[in-house]
Amino acid sequence: MPQKTYVRWLYRGFLYLFGVVVGLTIPWYIYISHVTDSIVNEQWEIPSVVYARPLELYVGKNLTPEALVFELDLLGYQAVNGTPKLGQYQIYQNNFDIYSKGFAFTDKNSPPKRIKINLSESKIVEMTPAIYRLEPKVIGHFYSSGLENRQPVKVNDIPDTMVKGLQAVEDQDFNHHHGVSWTGIIRAAYKNLMAGEIVQGGSTITQQLVKNKLQYNHSSILRKLHEALAATLLENKLNKKEIIEMYFNEIYWGQDGKVSIHGVAEAASYYFAKDVRQLNIAEQALLVGIIKGPSWYNPFRQAERAIQRRNLVLKIWFETAIISQQQWQQSKNQPLGLSGHRNIKADFADYMDVVKSQLKAQFKASDLRQKGLKIFTYLDPYIQYKTTQTARKTSQWLSSDVESAIVVSGAQNAELKAISGSKNERSHYNRALLAKRQIGSLIKPFVYLAGLETLSDFDLQADLHDEPIKLKTDEGTVWQPKNWDNKSWGIIAAKEALVHSRNQATVDLGLKISLKKFIGFMQDLGLNVNRSRHPSLFLGAIDLTPFEVQHLFSVFSSRGQNAQVLAVNYITNVDNELLSHNKHQNKLQINISNIDLINQAMYAITIRGTAKAISEKFQLPGTWFGKTGTTNAGRDSWFSGFNQELLATVWVGSDDNGSTPYSGSSGALILWAHLFMNL
Amino acid sequence: MKNRLTFWLLAMVTVLFASSCSQHRPIDINDDIRDPSEHEQSVIQIAPMVPEAVQILLQEAESQQQHDQIEQALLTLKRALSISPGSALVQQHLAELYLAEGDYQQAFGWSNRVFQQGPTHGSVCERARRTLALAAEMLNDVETQAQALESISDCTLPAPKKY
User: Fold this and answer.
1) In chain B, what residues touch A61 (CB-CB under 8 Å)?
2) Over the stretch A11-65, which tens digit does the pLDDT of each residue have?
3) 20 to 30 A Cα–Cα from A664, which one of A104, A376, A426, A539?
4) Are A139 and A146 in contact (CB under 8 A)?
5) What structural domains does chain A harbor?
6) Could you give the ipTM of this predicted complex?
């Protein structure tokens, strides 16, 4: 072959190769550049967090030692015998010594503090400081479809030992390389060769970040090249501090059921129930250690393995002078110190149903899932726990054939404290919110209140006729209401008729008011009673949920100030700025003295009426008010009752609307009384 | 003719503007509510009982309000109300905060609650009635305004004359 031809072919070959390289490399570069741009510009999807109420501590507060211990354990505090450190508490006799973890409330930052409390007869009698509130328990999240739990933090909020320590363990050349560490790769290759297996990876922190962002399921040479180029480009678009911050917020740290834990803040909260700034050296080392394999080193299930990994990290930290010898010696001998808050089986799902329904009209679902809102509710975890326990014992105290629903709110301010929609923890049907059932005699206090409000010549001393009565309804049928004992007491005072829940006397009063006026009265209370045009409405022939009944009875417990029970107190954005808060909306125009008269009658009901078991059998101390309700053949058993602090409504019945052997006093009242005895 | 019409129109607009300004002058809680109530000469001064913790929170809310941290003050008062839901003193503070911030509906609601269920004599009694009257005025509820103003004197139980 002539030399000229050879050169030509060589030239052509070179051109071809050059074309292939340029043709592939440039689009690849553009693609990877686009990918890194999207990483840089990506907005975190931060799930909104729902909090319980913070426990307020102050002299004079009613608080049992059991309730305080429950709260502290739920918040992940550790009980210790010596002087408590941050996140610990000590009990001696009736004295509590708590080192709180603090919380940035919207109205005021509440820093960590030593709190000393003396309890006597279920009350705080001494305390320093004079007032303090513990951090609120997280009761739920609004997740996006990825079910990722993440709360981003600034790198300045992460302990310095952890930031440096991560680099020492994962990427010693982090501050010197441009995304890919060739010395790191050679070092890893040498160690792997020596060990005969893969003991060390050569990926830099930047490469790991890219890998996490791109979510590769398996590695290949091409993907390694992708990673390397993307890491190099990322280093040109972000500085080292931004990369390390993104890494700490992005990295996968474990699995809580279906929810994956991402980011150091969530990891600190999940494993130690602490703010990331409050982690000690050993805790920091554990978190850095388990990045390598959150499942393999899961400290909850593989404690020994996790300790070994943590101690290896601590050794590296000591060798690289990140910690002193003393810190190393102290930390490596510490137990894992995992928070036990996950062991407390508190059930907040039913409460979350209410939160969701009350937020639905106010916020878009996408904002709730992505914008990291903070939703502060009125839920009281201890009352919720006791309410759930009470519901779970429905079969024990009554029968396995019936279901139950319980709603508890503040008596005077209608703040929803707790709710249980079933006796069965696996039931997803929230009866308290969704099951509309006839309310029976629960309506009677409202009939008598309507009488006081609308009839000029009526008071609770007025005579009513508890006598057989025949009424022709709009449908042309004849309706003959009877009393539960099938007797008629003749002429009796209105108050006695209410105390003893007399049907015929109540219908007598209802007819004086008129059905139309009574419906109007109930509508003014916020009740939709358009469909019911039958006089049996006077005896509670109307379907309401336990939650709706709770709204109604809050009119009595708050002396006419509230007719709407609310779960959400206020909402802030991720930066703690107030977005909305619950406002007082009282449009009721009811004479307080009339409400007081009905409350006196409801007090008598708990002393000598249908709910006298409260004072006689259960002997609950204090003053109680309440009303029982029963529908035909015990299909529904109700009790709604309150004291100065709490109002609770209990429903008991069968899901198929079948008959039960229970009246209001022998069914719902039993659960209600047990709940209050245990609070 | 045209000039005269313009003159009268301008005069009317000026009068309307001036009257509107006088109706919506900013409400100063100290000048309009608290100071006049402090001079109240009733022999019975009912100071609502509240726990020490609530007193601390009320002071905190005052301080936040003075530093123009209105939302924080509001949440602090709500915190106090959660501790003492029936406290007329806390309710009155809330009413005054809302009034100062121009949320007259809320100011009306809370002061009306104190009016109905709060103390019947003394400074808080009078503050509630003054707040209710101003809120009612801003909401054009003349009847409630008149009723609240008339009842201010009921908060004072004068000392018996010395003969």
Assistant:
1) 53, 83
2) 888 888 888 888 888 888 888 888 888 888 877 788 899 999 999 999 999 999 9
3) A426
4) no
5) 49-140 (3.30.2060.10), 143-343 (1.10.3810.10), 349-437+544-587+620-679 (3.40.710.10), 440-541 (3.40.710.10)
6) 0.81
